[in-house]
DNA sequence: CATGAATGAGTCTTCATTCAT
DNA sequence: CATGAATGAAGACTCATTCAT
């Protein structure tokens, strides 16, 4: 893929993500193209249809999250702190969108999405398991459920790391002895 | 209002609420009408446009919730229990929808909505305040914030009273001494 | 026909005529009914469909014009003056409407309209012919054409007897010697 | 603007004008598109809504009239003859439509219409003033009113240069000495 | 017999997608 | 290869007309 084509692709994905966040899920393809400074034709050259674009946004966001998560894991931070860091990053990415897409059925032949979701979850579960071993995270909820829970709390449009909801969720997850 | 008209109106509101919950916010008016067994014209006679219909659904749900909340308050239950009961009822009503509407600007001249939201909130705050006095609910979060928090947790599409999220929220709200 | 029914009918016809003049030809049947203070059902009881109503307005207006024209003819006024009087009356009646209807095809089985148009024309032609004999109206245009001309000048929406157009038409029709 | 787009635009404007003249102001957009041999989408790409289309027709007609009027003025014809020529051209253009539009309020930001009307009127007034100086047009009516008058006579649906109405108007405007 | 609720065909308009330039 | 014009299916909404109350 040529350098300019790659740049266009990037540009479209990030522009579209921003537009979806700012103006809801009904932005038109035309508008996305205009905001990205390209013609619709170009948009469709990169993404055969709307779903492909939305999926690309998700893949992009999940990829960034995964990169970040792995970087964090290589750092020397506690499991609990890792969870918090990753969750903060979640709120900075268009993951509400990603989630709504994940909820739907993935396009056949485009299997990146489930794999990425899997990988991100693995990263989070590992952090959660560590935190449980460290005694900071409740042990009566399986790590898998902890993650599901955090996902719900964080993958809402407009979620922020210091939302009352997110704060209380972390309080609720804190091991009672801690 | 004639008896058959009232019946149709009810029918439309409940059918539409169900459809919105099942199939998302983009169901077409035509489809709603068909599901309710009436013509589009009838739909539009009762609700001048889509927004009016959605608003009516919210008003209806909030009204039911308020009725229930007041009935609960007259019962001899603890504040904590009242909270749980009201919250359970929330999950049975299309309040995710209601909330998304409340977020938008109310239609001019149709001031029921803010009033209802107010009234429901008052009911919930009263239960929360009682629970704080009873020593079962954390006192370091103002009752008002507790409600905001619960609203966020409960007014998601598909929320259930025994969701992990809702369970953890309640755990997080429990007074540490309790 | 009962007295109240006749009164309703009258009411509807005049109300509708006013509305058509004020707000153009697209007023809805519902609105006409509301303005007349009756239900749509009543409106439809009197007029099987929209065309019938519009036709009734025309018949009504032409009938009034004919009555007036005959009254004028029985008076002792000159042909020229008669023309002016009748024309003034035209501008007070919703004849622009009437004309647009006449232009269309009359409803089968409702032959009043052509007859009335005929009768009114006859009255006008007679006045014109008298004016020609009196030497006040140009003789080089057949009376029939004079009438056609006046009709065009007068049966416009918003026509008034002292419009520049109408004034010049009368000037142009004046016998040069007069 | 691409060549094919311009061609389509032209095609739509003229087709629509014809249809409006032939079948009245209620022709559907669908029908206009079909008659022009394009899809509705194309129609709407060129004209964001019905009003814009009607306005474009008017602008188009007035522009042609203005071009013609200026060409006539550069010819060596008398004021009276210029008036007649311009008026004949009026009857060949969909100016009845144009006029009905002019009557309504112009779209904000689309100020061509008032300007064009102004320009055409200026052209006509200049011809009228010349005719008055030449002694062929009555001097007791201000040129401006003469134009208003001619406009009324000519901007009717179906007006023709040799209508009795138009003929008599010109007769009525002729200076009595001429 | 009046009323106004119900009906549904028809209108305007939008937008994902295709295709000529 | 980018562009943006063309397409038409689909949705929101209106209104003449019918029919239950």
From TrEMBL, chains A, B, C, D:
<dbReference type="Pfam" id="PF00440">
    <property type="entry name" value="TetR_N"/>
</dbReference>
<dbReference type="InterPro" id="IPR049445">
    <property type="entry name" value="TetR_SbtR-like_C"/>
</dbReference>
<dbReference type="InterPro" id="IPR050109">
    <property type="entry name" value="HTH-type_TetR-like_transc_reg"/>
</dbReference>
<dbReference type="InterPro" id="IPR009057">
    <property type="entry name" value="Homeodomain-like_sf"/>
</dbReference>
<dbReference type="InterPro" id="IPR001647">
    <property type="entry name" value="HTH_TetR"/>
</dbReference>
<keyword id="KW-0238">DNA-binding</keyword>
<dbReference type="GO" id="GO:0000976">
    <property type="term" value="F:transcription cis-regulatory region binding"/>
</dbReference>
<feature type="domain" description="HTH tetR-type">
    <location>
        <begin position="6"/>
        <end position="65"/>
    </location>
</feature>
<keyword id="KW-0804">Transcription</keyword>
<dbReference type="InterPro" id="IPR036271">
    <property type="entry name" value="Tet_transcr_reg_TetR-rel_C_sf"/>
</dbReference>
<dbReference type="GO" id="GO:0003700">
    <property type="term" value="F:DNA-binding transcription factor activity"/>
</dbReference>
<keyword id="KW-0805">Transcription regulation</keyword>
<dbReference type="Pfam" id="PF21597">
    <property type="entry name" value="TetR_C_43"/>
</dbReference>
<protein>
    <submittedName>
        <fullName>TetR/AcrR family transcriptional regulator</fullName>
    </submittedName>
</protein>
<feature type="DNA-binding region" description="H-T-H motif">
    <location>
        <begin position="28"/>
        <end position="47"/>
    </location>
</feature>
């Amino acid at each position: 893929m040529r350098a300019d084509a790659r740049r266009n692709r990037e540009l479209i994905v990030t522009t579209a993500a921003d537009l979806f966040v700012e103006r809801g899920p009904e932005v038109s393809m035309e508008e996305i193209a205009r905001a990205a400074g390209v013609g619709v034709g170009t948009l469709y050259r990169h993404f055969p249809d709307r779903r492909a674009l939305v999926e690309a946004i998700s893949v992009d966001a999940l990829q960034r999250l995964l990169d970040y998560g792995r970087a964090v894991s290589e750092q020397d931070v506690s499991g609990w702190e890792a969870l918090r860091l990753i969750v903060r990053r979640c709120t900075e990415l268009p993951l509400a969108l990603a989630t709504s897409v994940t909820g739907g059925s993935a396009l056949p032949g485009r299997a990146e999405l489930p794999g990425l979701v899997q990988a991100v979850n693995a990263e989070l579960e590992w952090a959660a398991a560590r935190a449980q071993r460290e005694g900071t995270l409740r042990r009566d909820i399986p790590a898998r459920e902890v993650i599901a829970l955090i996902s719900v709390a964080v993958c809402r449009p407009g979620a922020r790391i210091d939302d009352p909801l997110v704060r209380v969720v972390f309080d609720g997850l804190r091991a009672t002895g801690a």
